[in-house]
Amino acid sequence: MNVIELDGVTIGIGGRSILADASFAIKRGEFIGVLGPNGAGKTTLMRAILGLLSPSAGSLRVFGRAPERGDPNIGYLPQVRTVVPDLRVRGFDFIASSVHGERWGVPSLTRADRAMIDKTLVAADARDLAGRPLSDMSGGERQRLLLAQALLGEPQLLLLDEPLISLDYRYQEAVIDLVRRFARERNITVLFSAHELNQLIGTIDRVLYLGNGHAALGTLAEVATAPVLSKLYGADIQVVHADGHIFVLSRGRDVERSDHVHDEGHDHDHHHGHHHHA
Amino acid sequence: MITTIITAITTMLEYDFMRNAFAAAGVAAVVSGLVGYFLVLRGQTFAGHALSHIGFAGATGAVLIGVASVWGLVGFTVAAGIGMGLLGERISGRDVAIGVVLALALGFGLLFLHYYTAFATQATALLFGNVLAVDRAMIGTLVGLGLITLGGLAAIMRPLIFASLQPELAEAKGVPLRFVSTAFLTVVALAVSECAQIVGILLVFSLMVGPPATAQRLVTGLWSGMALSAGLALAEAWFGIAIAYHTDWPVSFCIAMLSALGYFLSRGNFLPRQEQII
Q1: Mean pLDDT, chain A, as a whole number?
Q2: Which residues pair with residue A25 across a beta bridge?
Q3: What residue in A sits closest to B163 (Cα-Cα)?
Q4: What is the share, in percent, of chain B residues with pLDDT greater than 90?
Q5: Domain span at residue A44?
Q6: Fold for domain B2-267?
Q7: B131 FRET partner, CA 20 to 30 A, in A103, A176, B187, B195?
Q8: pLDDT of residue A266
Q9: Per-residue DSSP letters for B2-65?
């Protein structure tokens, strides 16, 4: 069964085509890494799947129907995450605000809602954050809490927009590990956007590269190649394989990470190779 | 000792104007504490301040045309609250707009005063409050306005909390951000009108910001925070009146002093921190 289906979809923002005539399908339970240069439309695609903007042409179907805003089957971690500085609200109340948060009236949680939140906090290794105010949490801890929130309510589809951004390396590993475990256990479809491909190798089933209005979905061997990526980046791209890692280079520079070079040897066995550092 | 206190309280309450003052301040304080909690949570205290200043023009204008000042205050603050809400969610840029409108409103207030020369004493009452002059009719007005304010707050509370804590996710889940923000500022406008009757336009912060900010330092739950905020506002208002009665200092000064005292005590290191990172 296809969870997401695009057929000749064009999405434009302000006269610029983010996606032009894109067609692909994502099956249930797939873990998809979403990559591409900044502004390639990773966030836009997720917003379209959420029903926040509609394609100007083509057909976009989510769970076999047109996307619906507020679909409870979708768990979402937005890329822009405004948190009021010095927010002295405890973790539990913070994520509980999203449970039926769109309903009018005074908030109330049933016993079942509380149990569900507790269960998800445990599953996301965020139980310890429930009683602490956000103002006292580190960036990694906040991310763990937000991830727990995206997992609330048994979603069938997870849209995680740059969940690794501004996290240090060990937290990045922990986040990937957590999402993989959670999704595999429940056969959840995941769209995981990131800046860097290497950390996701061994976790993702397929990769969706966006760029220049084009979309390329396939296995790493199919998509992470010089001809495909050159077209997407609109530049002469070289793909270098080294020690189980893939480097996407343009004129000798790493286009995904130009600031530092990934030089540690990591075990990417995705069954039991990782530990939680959280 | 206890009998002395009881005697002091009963003597104080023998006066009609004192009973009225306690009743009026009690109603306004609870409304201010509850609405103010969300004002602080959303980081919109400046908007509350601006609304009260705009209300000054409304109050002076109303008296000039022979209408009770409270209705001018309500009319202007509500109109301004709706206007500010419709201007949009973006805080940046909006603060400048608020500042400009605020100065203009105070200017208009001055103009209206200029044409109503016998108004000097009432201007002081408007700017700094005169709770000892409150009559029974005004208490009725305050109770009615208070019920409308709290009813409005209760109606939007759930999406308001969601939108305040996580605007991006709330939007994705179908919360109409613009509407919630505008409705909230209307509620704030009504609360400001209430509060200004007690402590005056220039000192609304003492009941609308001091107690909620103190409550958020002390507790991290939403409900406990709201309850503590309302309780602190009530205590500060009533103790303020009692201190004023015994010292002959202005009531608004006493309330402002207690409000500031509470806030700085809660910020101090000498109070045990509720939540330490374990």
Answers
A1: 85
A2: A5
A3: A101
A4: 57
A5: 2-73+155-254
A6: ABC transporter involved in vitamin B12 uptake, BtuC (1.10.3470)
A7: B187
A8: 38
A9: HHHHHHHHHHHHTSHHHHHHHHHHHHHHHHHHHHHHHHHHTT-HHHHHHHHHHHHHHHHHHHHT
For position A156, what pLDDT does the model report? 95
Q: Do A81 and B221 touch (CB under 8 A)?
A: no
ipTM (interface pTM):
0.85
Name which of A74, A98, A108, A165 to mutate to probe chain B: the one with the most chain B Cβ atoms within 10 A of its Cβ.
A98
Global pTM?
Answer: 0.88
pLDDT tens-digit profile of A103-149?
999 999 999 999 999 999 998 889 999 999 998 888 888 888 999 99
Residue B49: per-residue pLDDT? 85
In a domain, A117, yes or no: no
Any B CB within 8 A of A98 CB: yes
Whether the CB of A97 is below 8 Å from some CB of chain B: the reply is yes
A146 found inside a domain: no
Examine residue A238 and state whether it is found in any structural domain, yes or no.
yes
Write the CATH number for A205.
3.40.50.300
Helix (H, G, I), strand (E, B) or coil at B107: helix
Interface of B with A in 193-232 (CB under 8 A): 216-217, 220-222, 225
Sign of CA dihedral A253, A255, A260, A266: negative
Assigned domain for A128 exists: no
* Residues B32 and B208 sit within 8 Å (Cβ to Cβ): yes
Residue ranges of domains in chain B? 2-267
